[in-house]
Amino acid sequence: MTFSQVYSQDTSKIPILENIVPNSSFEEFASFPLGWFYNGKDYSRLMKYWTSPTYASPDIYHPKVRIPIFWTQKGFGIERPHQGKSMSGITTYGCEGGKPHCREYIQIQLIEPLVIGQQYEAEFYTLALERSIFNNNLGMYFSMEEINDITDEVLERTPQVVDKKVISATKSSWYRVHGTFTATEAAEYLLIGNFFQDSLTLTHTNSKSYNYGYYYIDDVKVKKIEPIIDVEPSENDICCLEYEVGKSVVLNNIFFETDKSELLPQSYVELNKLYQVLLDYPKMIIEIQGHTDNQGTHKYNINLSTERAQAVVDFLTQKGIDSSRLYFKGFGDTLPISDNGTSEGRQLNRRVEFYIMSM
């Protein structure tokens, strides 16, 4: 992931991410990839940040993924990724032919929501299985909400980017599905697949074709097109605050894996703002402080909050902030700011703050 900084017309400095799709080339795994998949939960468990929005089972291809011989004999996995070592694969046609899991989709939460009125460029690379029914309508749909549907058939949506060309296999020649659009809502999720019924999808077949369409997916990108729309920061945005020694500031929109200290990509926007604050105040020394709710034992919460505070420090040092300016400490559930008896209160108590030690 690369970052470029675009500055708004006011005095705040808000980093703009070039590609707002995390794990865009499917190279990161949540656990070691071992085998083939039989429902969407398998894909969601193994692929980092990507999920299956339905019960159907997208596939992961990697040198360490064992593909059953039945499927390799059909040609699955013989193609190499567009780049890197990994790629995904989805079924895109075949409901009227009676194929189970006749539609498969992949879904991911964007690093930041779309900005209403902003123009975006979106793309992914795709390659058809050699004996696929070749079809059109491969596209990208941006959703306000995460989709979790028990179906294994068509998700009927109106994709913001869709390719009307029937995409055929041409000897490992990857095809770029590409388009531009203007965001009409602050969508947070991206889905890739065919969102049209078989009857509305154009196809090309030959005597050797299977009764379904299947395509590999790799290298997904969504980025803003200039001019960049300035997003007005809120009153408590850390880029707009005045700082003094002894001040504590809650970092908004910092997210971790459940019960883990791994930062989720949705945290990068806020963390890059903190990085910019430290650049603007080169003598500032801070302590990153982690807090939890009261679920779990005291020892567990202290350890988890300490590890999460350290993860923030590690992010900043990797960006180039001198480690001598950064301290961290975990307080567990000892300093709540809200009622742990409600889910809303517990959410507020699960937080990361920074405390200004000197300037």
What do you see in this structure?
The protein is α+β, with helices and mostly antiparallel strands and 359 residues long. The chain has 2 domains: 3-224, Sandwich (Jelly Rolls); 248-358, 60s Ribosomal Protein L30, Chain: A (2-Layer Sandwich), CATH 3.30.1330.60. Helix content is 14%, strand content 26%. It is built from 5 helices and 18 strands. The protein has helices spanning 40-46, 69-72, 268-280, 298-318, 343-349; strands at 3-5, 15-17, 50-51, 59-61, 87-93, 106-109, 119-128, 134-135, 138-143, 161-163, 175-182, 189-194, 203-204, 213-224, 248-251, 285-291, 326-330, 351-358. The strands form 5 sheets. Strands 3-6-12-9-10 form a 5-stranded antiparallel sheet. Strand 16 (285-291), helix 4 and strand 17 form a beta-alpha-beta unit. The longest helix is centred in the C-terminal third of the chain and has 21 residues, at 298-318. The two termini are 31 Å apart.
